[in-house]
Write a structure and sequence with these properties.
The complex is a heterodimer of chains A (about 260) and B (about 200). Chain A has one domain. Chain A is built from 11 helices and no strands. Helices cover about 70% and strands about 0% of the residues of chain A. Chain A is mostly helical and about 260 residues long. Chain A starts with a helix and ends in a 6-residue tail after the last helix. With about 200 residues, chain B is an all-alpha fold. In chain B, about 85% of the residues lie in helices and about 0% in strands. Chain B is elongated. The chains are: A mainly alpha (about 260), B mainly alpha (about 200). The interface between A and B is medium-sized, with 28 and 26 residues.
Protein backbone atom coordinates (compact mmCIF):
# COMPACT_ATOMS: atom_id res chain seq x y z
CA UNK A 1 0.00 0.00 0.00
CA UNK A 2 1.37 3.36 -0.91
CA UNK A 3 2.27 5.83 1.78
CA UNK A 4 -0.31 8.30 0.49
CA UNK A 5 -3.09 5.74 0.60
CA UNK A 6 -2.04 4.77 4.08
CA UNK A 7 -2.10 8.39 5.26
CA UNK A 8 -5.48 8.99 3.63
CA UNK A 9 -6.93 5.90 5.24
CA UNK A 10 -5.59 6.93 8.62
CA UNK A 11 -7.16 10.38 8.27
CA UNK A 12 -10.52 9.22 6.90
CA UNK A 13 -11.22 5.81 8.35
CA UNK A 14 -8.92 4.91 11.22
CA UNK A 15 -11.18 3.96 14.14
CA UNK A 16 -8.79 5.59 16.58
CA UNK A 17 -7.93 8.66 14.55
CA UNK A 18 -9.22 11.15 17.16
CA UNK A 19 -7.24 9.43 19.90
CA UNK A 20 -4.07 9.40 17.81
CA UNK A 21 -4.65 13.02 16.84
CA UNK A 22 -4.92 14.04 20.49
CA UNK A 23 -1.85 12.00 21.38
CA UNK A 24 0.28 13.56 18.64
CA UNK A 25 -0.96 17.00 19.67
CA UNK A 26 0.24 16.20 23.18
CA UNK A 27 3.69 15.14 21.96
CA UNK A 28 4.04 18.21 19.72
CA UNK A 29 2.68 20.56 22.38
CA UNK A 30 5.15 19.46 25.04
CA UNK A 31 8.04 19.67 22.57
CA UNK A 32 7.00 23.17 21.54
CA UNK A 33 6.40 24.19 25.15
CA UNK A 34 9.96 23.18 26.02
CA UNK A 35 11.48 24.92 23.00
CA UNK A 36 9.45 28.12 23.44
CA UNK A 37 9.92 28.52 27.17
CA UNK A 38 13.53 27.39 27.42
CA UNK A 39 15.12 28.35 24.11
CA UNK A 40 13.07 31.05 22.36
CA UNK A 41 11.73 33.23 25.19
CA UNK A 42 14.37 31.97 27.67
CA UNK A 43 12.05 32.69 30.62
CA UNK A 44 12.84 29.22 31.99
CA UNK A 45 14.74 28.19 34.06
CA UNK A 46 13.36 31.08 36.11
CA UNK A 47 15.68 33.87 37.23
CA UNK A 48 15.96 34.91 40.86
CA UNK A 49 13.03 36.63 42.61
CA UNK A 50 15.59 38.57 44.64
CA UNK A 51 16.95 40.56 41.68
CA UNK A 52 17.05 44.34 41.84
CA UNK A 53 14.94 46.44 39.45
CA UNK A 54 17.85 47.30 37.07
CA UNK A 55 18.71 43.59 36.78
CA UNK A 56 15.12 42.72 35.97
CA UNK A 57 14.97 45.45 33.31
CA UNK A 58 18.21 44.18 31.83
CA UNK A 59 16.82 40.62 31.85
CA UNK A 60 13.80 41.78 29.82
CA UNK A 61 16.03 43.75 27.44
CA UNK A 62 18.18 40.69 26.74
CA UNK A 63 15.04 38.69 25.83
CA UNK A 64 13.01 41.40 24.10
CA UNK A 65 12.50 39.75 20.69
CA UNK A 66 12.54 36.21 22.06
CA UNK A 67 9.67 37.00 24.43
CA UNK A 68 7.61 38.82 21.79
CA UNK A 69 8.06 36.15 19.13
CA UNK A 70 7.98 33.14 21.48
CA UNK A 71 4.86 34.16 23.33
CA UNK A 72 3.22 35.11 20.05
CA UNK A 73 3.58 31.45 19.10
CA UNK A 74 2.42 30.35 22.56
CA UNK A 75 -0.83 32.24 21.99
CA UNK A 76 -1.20 30.59 18.60
CA UNK A 77 -0.80 27.08 19.97
CA UNK A 78 -2.49 27.47 23.36
CA UNK A 79 -5.68 25.91 21.98
CA UNK A 80 -3.79 22.64 21.61
CA UNK A 81 -4.41 22.15 25.31
CA UNK A 82 -7.98 21.16 24.49
CA UNK A 83 -7.41 17.82 22.69
CA UNK A 84 -4.53 17.10 25.04
CA UNK A 85 -6.67 17.51 28.15
CA UNK A 86 -9.49 15.66 26.43
CA UNK A 87 -7.24 12.62 25.98
CA UNK A 88 -6.26 12.69 29.64
CA UNK A 89 -9.93 12.87 30.63
CA UNK A 90 -10.73 10.12 28.12
CA UNK A 91 -8.27 7.82 29.89
CA UNK A 92 -10.25 8.30 33.09
CA UNK A 93 -13.61 7.82 31.37
CA UNK A 94 -12.28 4.50 30.06
CA UNK A 95 -11.67 3.37 33.64
CA UNK A 96 -14.23 1.59 35.77
CA UNK A 97 -14.48 4.61 38.08
CA UNK A 98 -17.04 7.40 38.31
CA UNK A 99 -16.93 9.93 35.48
CA UNK A 100 -16.55 12.62 38.12
CA UNK A 101 -12.81 11.87 38.02
CA UNK A 102 -12.50 12.65 34.31
CA UNK A 103 -14.62 15.79 34.52
CA UNK A 104 -12.72 17.10 37.57
CA UNK A 105 -9.42 16.55 35.83
CA UNK A 106 -10.59 18.18 32.64
CA UNK A 107 -11.85 21.30 34.41
CA UNK A 108 -8.78 21.63 36.60
CA UNK A 109 -6.25 21.25 33.82
CA UNK A 110 -8.18 23.54 31.49
CA UNK A 111 -8.20 26.20 34.19
CA UNK A 112 -4.52 25.76 35.00
CA UNK A 113 -3.58 26.68 31.43
CA UNK A 114 -4.83 30.22 32.10
CA UNK A 115 -2.50 31.29 34.95
CA UNK A 116 0.25 28.79 34.15
CA UNK A 117 0.63 29.73 30.51
CA UNK A 118 -1.58 32.53 29.20
CA UNK A 119 -1.45 35.01 32.11
CA UNK A 120 2.27 34.43 32.43
CA UNK A 121 2.73 35.02 28.70
CA UNK A 122 0.64 38.21 28.80
CA UNK A 123 2.58 39.62 31.76
CA UNK A 124 5.93 38.76 30.17
CA UNK A 125 4.93 40.25 26.83
CA UNK A 126 3.66 43.40 28.54
CA UNK A 127 7.00 43.65 30.35
CA UNK A 128 9.04 43.22 27.16
CA UNK A 129 7.03 45.21 24.63
CA UNK A 130 7.77 48.70 26.04
CA UNK A 131 11.40 48.83 27.25
CA UNK A 132 10.90 52.52 28.17
CA UNK A 133 8.16 51.67 30.66
CA UNK A 134 8.64 52.61 34.33
CA UNK A 135 11.25 50.08 35.64
CA UNK A 136 9.20 49.47 38.79
CA UNK A 137 6.25 48.51 36.62
CA UNK A 138 8.46 46.09 34.68
CA UNK A 139 9.56 44.52 37.93
CA UNK A 140 5.92 44.23 39.00
CA UNK A 141 5.15 42.37 35.78
CA UNK A 142 8.13 40.09 36.40
CA UNK A 143 6.85 39.12 39.87
CA UNK A 144 3.30 38.79 38.57
CA UNK A 145 4.37 36.49 35.71
CA UNK A 146 6.44 34.10 37.81
CA UNK A 147 3.95 33.99 40.67
CA UNK A 148 1.20 33.24 38.19
CA UNK A 149 3.29 30.39 36.76
CA UNK A 150 4.16 28.95 40.19
CA UNK A 151 0.60 29.43 41.38
CA UNK A 152 -0.72 26.63 39.18
CA UNK A 153 1.15 24.02 41.18
CA UNK A 154 -1.76 23.49 43.58
CA UNK A 155 -3.98 22.62 40.63
CA UNK A 156 -1.41 20.14 39.32
CA UNK A 157 -1.13 18.65 42.81
CA UNK A 158 -4.88 18.00 43.08
CA UNK A 159 -4.94 16.87 39.43
CA UNK A 160 -2.25 14.27 40.12
CA UNK A 161 -4.17 13.07 43.18
CA UNK A 162 -7.42 12.77 41.21
CA UNK A 163 -5.63 10.69 38.58
CA UNK A 164 -3.90 8.65 41.32
CA UNK A 165 -7.19 7.74 43.03
CA UNK A 166 -8.83 6.92 39.69
CA UNK A 167 -5.95 4.57 38.74
CA UNK A 168 -5.94 2.83 42.10
CA UNK A 169 -9.72 2.27 42.02
CA UNK A 170 -9.83 1.29 38.35
CA UNK A 171 -10.53 -2.34 37.53
CA UNK A 172 -10.14 -1.92 33.76
CA UNK A 173 -6.36 -1.83 34.04
CA UNK A 174 -6.08 1.30 31.88
CA UNK A 175 -2.88 2.40 33.63
CA UNK A 176 -0.45 0.38 35.73
CA UNK A 177 -0.69 1.02 39.46
CA UNK A 178 2.94 2.18 39.62
CA UNK A 179 1.98 5.20 37.58
CA UNK A 180 -0.66 6.00 40.19
CA UNK A 181 2.01 5.89 42.88
CA UNK A 182 4.29 8.04 40.73
CA UNK A 183 1.41 10.54 40.72
CA UNK A 184 1.76 10.72 44.50
CA UNK A 185 5.44 11.64 44.12
CA UNK A 186 4.50 14.28 41.59
CA UNK A 187 1.74 15.68 43.82
CA UNK A 188 4.14 15.96 46.75
CA UNK A 189 6.68 17.88 44.68
CA UNK A 190 3.95 20.33 43.66
CA UNK A 191 3.23 20.85 47.36
CA UNK A 192 6.86 21.86 47.83
CA UNK A 193 6.38 24.95 45.64
CA UNK A 194 4.23 26.64 48.30
CA UNK A 195 7.26 28.10 50.20
CA UNK A 196 8.09 30.08 47.02
CA UNK A 197 5.44 32.49 48.31
CA UNK A 198 7.64 33.25 51.31
CA UNK A 199 11.24 33.08 50.11
CA UNK A 200 13.07 35.27 47.62
CA UNK A 201 16.38 33.46 48.04
CA UNK A 202 17.56 29.92 48.55
CA UNK A 203 16.35 26.48 47.66
CA UNK A 204 12.65 27.25 48.27
CA UNK A 205 12.46 30.40 46.13
CA UNK A 206 10.65 30.03 42.78
CA UNK A 207 14.03 29.33 41.09
CA UNK A 208 15.38 27.21 43.96
CA UNK A 209 16.95 23.75 43.82
CA UNK A 210 14.01 22.19 45.65
CA UNK A 211 11.11 24.38 44.49
CA UNK A 212 12.12 24.32 40.81
CA UNK A 213 14.97 22.04 39.76
CA UNK A 214 14.01 18.84 41.55
CA UNK A 215 10.35 19.46 40.73
CA UNK A 216 11.17 19.86 37.08
CA UNK A 217 12.99 16.51 36.98
CA UNK A 218 10.01 14.77 38.61
CA UNK A 219 7.49 16.56 36.37
CA UNK A 220 9.40 15.70 33.18
CA UNK A 221 9.67 12.04 34.27
CA UNK A 222 5.95 11.97 35.15
CA UNK A 223 5.00 13.57 31.84
CA UNK A 224 7.21 11.23 29.80
CA UNK A 225 5.64 8.25 31.58
CA UNK A 226 2.07 9.33 30.92
CA UNK A 227 2.76 10.12 27.27
CA UNK A 228 4.10 6.57 26.77
CA UNK A 229 1.28 5.03 28.81
CA UNK A 230 -1.38 6.98 26.91
CA UNK A 231 0.08 5.65 23.68
CA UNK A 232 -0.19 2.12 25.04
CA UNK A 233 -3.76 2.81 26.12
CA UNK A 234 -4.68 3.86 22.59
CA UNK A 235 -3.06 0.76 21.10
CA UNK A 236 -4.96 -1.40 23.61
CA UNK A 237 -8.27 0.44 23.26
CA UNK A 238 -11.12 -1.79 22.10
CA UNK A 239 -13.91 0.78 22.62
CA UNK A 240 -15.58 -1.50 25.10
CA UNK A 241 -16.39 -0.81 28.73
CA UNK A 242 -14.59 -3.70 30.42
CA UNK A 243 -10.96 -4.41 31.08
CA UNK A 244 -8.57 -3.11 28.41
CA UNK A 245 -6.96 -5.97 26.45
CA UNK A 246 -3.27 -6.56 27.01
CA UNK A 247 -0.78 -4.94 24.68
CA UNK A 248 -0.57 -7.11 21.53
CA UNK A 249 2.82 -8.57 20.55
CA UNK A 250 5.01 -6.21 18.49
CA UNK A 251 4.24 -7.33 14.89
CA UNK A 252 0.50 -7.22 15.59
CA UNK A 253 0.87 -3.96 17.44
CA UNK A 254 2.06 -2.06 14.41
CA UNK A 255 -1.00 -3.28 12.55
CA UNK A 256 -3.27 -2.22 15.39
CA UNK A 257 -1.68 1.22 15.18
CA UNK A 258 -2.71 1.89 11.62
CA UNK A 259 -3.53 0.08 8.39
CA UNK A 260 -3.86 -3.38 9.91
CA UNK A 261 -7.32 -2.45 11.09
CA UNK A 262 -8.41 -2.10 7.45
CA UNK A 263 -8.63 -5.80 6.83
CA UNK B 1 -13.91 -11.80 28.82
CA UNK B 2 -11.45 -14.51 29.62
CA UNK B 3 -8.81 -12.06 30.74
CA UNK B 4 -10.89 -11.18 33.75
CA UNK B 5 -10.82 -14.73 34.99
CA UNK B 6 -7.16 -15.22 34.20
CA UNK B 7 -6.28 -12.01 36.03
CA UNK B 8 -8.30 -12.79 39.15
CA UNK B 9 -6.87 -11.23 42.32
CA UNK B 10 -5.90 -14.55 43.88
CA UNK B 11 -3.78 -15.52 40.90
CA UNK B 12 -2.28 -12.07 40.68
CA UNK B 13 -1.49 -12.17 44.37
CA UNK B 14 0.22 -15.51 44.08
CA UNK B 15 2.34 -14.34 41.20
CA UNK B 16 3.27 -11.03 42.71
CA UNK B 17 4.22 -12.30 46.16
CA UNK B 18 6.72 -14.65 44.59
CA UNK B 19 9.06 -11.74 43.72
CA UNK B 20 8.58 -8.96 46.25
CA UNK B 21 6.13 -8.45 49.11
CA UNK B 22 3.01 -6.58 47.99
CA UNK B 23 2.43 -5.00 44.59
CA UNK B 24 5.69 -4.59 42.64
CA UNK B 25 4.19 -1.21 41.64
CA UNK B 26 4.62 0.05 45.20
CA UNK B 27 8.33 -0.74 44.98
CA UNK B 28 8.55 1.65 42.04
CA UNK B 29 7.17 4.28 44.41
CA UNK B 30 9.75 3.32 47.05
CA UNK B 31 12.54 3.63 44.50
CA UNK B 32 11.30 6.96 43.17
CA UNK B 33 10.74 8.43 46.64
CA UNK B 34 14.23 7.31 47.62
CA UNK B 35 15.66 9.12 44.61
CA UNK B 36 13.57 12.20 45.35
CA UNK B 37 14.70 12.34 48.97
CA UNK B 38 18.28 11.74 47.86
CA UNK B 39 17.84 14.98 45.92
CA UNK B 40 16.50 16.80 49.00
CA UNK B 41 19.29 15.41 51.18
CA UNK B 42 21.92 16.40 48.63
CA UNK B 43 20.62 19.97 48.63
CA UNK B 44 20.73 19.95 52.44
CA UNK B 45 24.29 18.64 52.50
CA UNK B 46 25.49 21.19 49.95
CA UNK B 47 23.96 23.95 52.11
CA UNK B 48 25.60 22.45 55.15
CA UNK B 49 29.04 22.37 53.53
CA UNK B 50 28.68 26.03 52.52
CA UNK B 51 27.51 27.21 55.93
CA UNK B 52 28.83 24.69 58.41
CA UNK B 53 28.89 26.96 61.48
CA UNK B 54 25.28 28.04 61.11
CA UNK B 55 24.10 24.46 60.67
CA UNK B 56 26.05 23.25 63.71
CA UNK B 57 24.72 26.06 65.90
CA UNK B 58 21.16 25.50 64.75
CA UNK B 59 21.43 21.74 65.15
CA UNK B 60 22.48 22.29 68.76
CA UNK B 61 19.15 24.05 69.35
CA UNK B 62 17.21 20.88 68.46
CA UNK B 63 15.97 18.69 71.28
CA UNK B 64 17.52 15.30 70.60
CA UNK B 65 15.00 13.62 72.93
CA UNK B 66 12.20 14.37 70.46
CA UNK B 67 14.25 12.94 67.61
CA UNK B 68 15.06 9.76 69.53
CA UNK B 69 11.46 9.32 70.71
CA UNK B 70 10.15 9.78 67.18
CA UNK B 71 12.63 7.29 65.79
CA UNK B 72 11.70 4.70 68.40
CA UNK B 73 7.98 5.32 67.77
CA UNK B 74 8.35 4.74 64.03
CA UNK B 75 10.66 1.74 64.44
CA UNK B 76 8.06 0.21 66.75
CA UNK B 77 5.37 0.97 64.20
CA UNK B 78 7.43 -0.84 61.57
CA UNK B 79 7.81 -3.78 63.92
CA UNK B 80 4.03 -3.80 64.45
CA UNK B 81 3.21 -3.70 60.73
CA UNK B 82 5.73 -6.51 60.10
CA UNK B 83 3.90 -8.59 62.73
CA UNK B 84 0.62 -7.64 61.10
CA UNK B 85 1.81 -8.99 57.74
CA UNK B 86 3.10 -12.16 59.37
CA UNK B 87 -0.17 -12.74 61.22
CA UNK B 88 -2.17 -12.08 58.08
CA UNK B 89 -0.05 -14.59 56.13
CA UNK B 90 -0.82 -17.18 58.77
CA UNK B 91 -4.53 -16.39 58.62
CA UNK B 92 -4.57 -14.96 62.17
CA UNK B 93 -6.63 -11.94 61.16
CA UNK B 94 -7.63 -10.91 64.66
CA UNK B 95 -3.95 -10.58 65.62
CA UNK B 96 -3.22 -8.87 62.30
CA UNK B 97 -5.92 -6.28 63.02
CA UNK B 98 -4.53 -5.68 66.50
CA UNK B 99 -1.07 -5.11 65.03
CA UNK B 100 -2.47 -2.78 62.37
CA UNK B 101 -4.09 -0.66 65.09
CA UNK B 102 -0.84 -0.79 67.05
CA UNK B 103 0.97 0.56 63.95
CA UNK B 104 -1.52 3.41 63.71
CA UNK B 105 -1.09 4.06 67.45
CA UNK B 106 2.68 4.42 67.14
CA UNK B 107 2.12 6.64 64.12
CA UNK B 108 -0.17 8.88 66.17
CA UNK B 109 2.47 9.01 68.94
CA UNK B 110 4.97 10.21 66.32
CA UNK B 111 2.50 12.80 65.03
CA UNK B 112 1.78 14.22 68.49
CA UNK B 113 5.47 14.29 69.37
CA UNK B 114 6.34 16.02 66.10
CA UNK B 115 3.70 18.72 66.62
CA UNK B 116 4.94 19.27 70.19
CA UNK B 117 8.51 19.55 68.90
CA UNK B 118 7.51 22.11 66.27
CA UNK B 119 5.63 24.08 68.93
CA UNK B 120 8.69 24.09 71.16
CA UNK B 121 11.01 25.21 68.36
CA UNK B 122 8.63 27.97 67.29
CA UNK B 123 8.35 29.22 70.89
CA UNK B 124 12.16 29.35 70.97
CA UNK B 125 12.05 31.55 67.87
CA UNK B 126 13.23 28.86 65.46
CA UNK B 127 10.73 29.07 62.62
CA UNK B 128 10.62 28.18 58.93
CA UNK B 129 12.07 31.57 58.05
CA UNK B 130 14.69 31.81 60.85
CA UNK B 131 17.66 30.50 58.91
CA UNK B 132 18.71 28.01 56.25
CA UNK B 133 18.99 25.07 58.63
CA UNK B 134 15.50 25.56 60.01
CA UNK B 135 14.14 25.93 56.47
CA UNK B 136 15.43 22.41 55.82
CA UNK B 137 14.34 21.19 59.24
CA UNK B 138 10.73 22.31 58.82
CA UNK B 139 10.63 21.32 55.16
CA UNK B 140 11.98 17.79 55.61
CA UNK B 141 9.92 17.09 58.73
CA UNK B 142 6.76 18.53 57.09
CA UNK B 143 7.09 16.59 53.87
CA UNK B 144 7.77 13.49 55.94
CA UNK B 145 4.74 14.18 58.13
CA UNK B 146 2.66 14.46 54.97
CA UNK B 147 3.85 10.95 54.07
CA UNK B 148 2.81 9.82 57.54
CA UNK B 149 -0.68 11.34 57.13
CA UNK B 150 -1.03 9.54 53.80
CA UNK B 151 0.21 6.47 55.73
CA UNK B 152 -2.88 6.69 57.96
CA UNK B 153 -5.08 6.47 54.84
CA UNK B 154 -2.97 3.52 53.67
CA UNK B 155 -3.37 1.83 57.05
CA UNK B 156 -7.10 2.47 56.76
CA UNK B 157 -6.99 0.38 53.58
CA UNK B 158 -5.10 -2.37 55.42
CA UNK B 159 -7.65 -2.38 58.28
CA UNK B 160 -10.51 -2.40 55.75
CA UNK B 161 -8.95 -5.44 54.07
CA UNK B 162 -8.34 -7.30 57.31
CA UNK B 163 -11.74 -6.50 58.79
CA UNK B 164 -13.99 -8.65 56.62
CA UNK B 165 -13.49 -12.28 55.51
CA UNK B 166 -14.91 -11.17 52.15
CA UNK B 167 -11.78 -9.09 51.44
CA UNK B 168 -8.49 -9.93 53.14
CA UNK B 169 -6.18 -9.40 50.19
CA UNK B 170 -2.70 -10.37 51.33
CA UNK B 171 -1.33 -8.47 48.35
CA UNK B 172 -2.91 -5.21 49.51
CA UNK B 173 -1.92 -5.70 53.15
CA UNK B 174 1.70 -6.20 52.10
CA UNK B 175 1.51 -3.21 49.75
CA UNK B 176 0.29 -1.05 52.64
CA UNK B 177 3.09 -2.41 54.84
CA UNK B 178 5.66 -1.54 52.16
CA UNK B 179 4.41 2.04 52.14
CA UNK B 180 4.56 2.24 55.93
CA UNK B 181 8.11 0.90 56.02
CA UNK B 182 9.06 3.61 53.49
CA UNK B 183 7.77 6.26 55.89
CA UNK B 184 9.91 4.75 58.62
CA UNK B 185 12.96 4.36 56.36
CA UNK B 186 12.77 8.00 55.27
CA UNK B 187 12.47 9.16 58.87
CA UNK B 188 15.59 7.26 59.93
CA UNK B 189 17.55 9.09 57.22
CA UNK B 190 16.04 12.46 58.16
CA UNK B 191 16.79 11.82 61.84
CA UNK B 192 20.39 10.93 61.05
CA UNK B 193 20.92 14.00 58.88
CA UNK B 194 19.15 16.62 60.99
CA UNK B 195 19.88 15.46 64.53
CA UNK B 196 22.91 13.21 64.51
CA UNK B 197 25.39 14.09 61.75
CA UNK B 198 27.66 16.87 62.98
Amino acid sequence: MSLLRRVLWNVRDHPKRELWFAWWVMVIFYQLYGVLFFLVTRVQPPPSPAWSTPMVVQWFDARHYGILAGFGIVFLISGLCAPMNALLAYSMRRMSVSQIFGYSYLVMYSLSAIPGMLVMAIAMTAGAMRPDRDPEMIRWLYDFAFLSFSGTMGVFMIGSLVWLVAILLDKNDVFPKWFGYLGLCNALTEFVVAPAWIFQRGVFAWNGAIAWWINMVVFVTYTACFIVLLRRMIVREDFGTGRLPDLPPKPERSEADSVGAMQ
Amino acid sequence: MTNLQEGSPTEAERQATRFVPGQPDMWVFVLFESLLFTGYFSVYLVGRIQNRELYLQSQAALDLRFGVFNTIALLLSSWAIARCVQASREGAYRDALRDAFLTIGFGVAFLVSKVLEWGKEIRLGNTFTSNEFFQHFFFLTSIHLLHLLIGFIVMGVAVYQLWSPARRSQLLVETCATYWHTVDFLWVLIFALLYVVR
